[in-house]
Each structure stands twice: as C-alpha cells, then as structure tokens.
Amino acid sequence: MLNLLKGMGKAYKEAQKAKKLDKAARDKLPPQYGGPPRDPEVIKLNKQLKIAKNVGIGTAGAIGAAGVYGKAKKAFKDKDKKND
Description:
Strand content: under 5%
Shape: flat
Distance between the termini: 69 Å
Radius of gyration: 26 Å
Number of helices: 2
Largest sheet: none
Order of helices and strands: HH
Number of domains: 2
C-alpha cells in the first residue's frame, strides 16, 4: 500500500513537470499555432473582457446583497412594530 502511494506521488510530480514544460513550449510558439497573442489589439480586448466579467460578477453580488439587506430591514421593522 505504501509503495502505491509513493508511486502516485512520483507520477504526480512527473505530470506537473510535463505540464510546466508543455506550457513553456507553448509560450514559444507563434500565435497562429496556439502561442500567446502578441497583437496589442488582442491584448487590449482580452483585458477589456476580463474587466467586463469582473464588473458583471460584482453587479450580481451587489443585487443579491441588496435583496438580503432589504429583507432583513423589513423583518426588523416588522419586529419593532410588534413590540410597540
């Protein structure tokens, strides 16, 4: 059993090394063969997309939080009316 675990750890390390080497080789490729984009317009567009995604995530979170806040505020207001 212990030998199996040692073997799995070794296999994991080898897989991580292979993944790192593959990424390094891919970074050296030209863009048309799967390498990183070097066109400034593409880089700018990717940055804008990333920002738009983050804004969308933040908007959804804010809407959800506002709904929870409104429900809690209403519940506390109803609780105060019952105590009067």
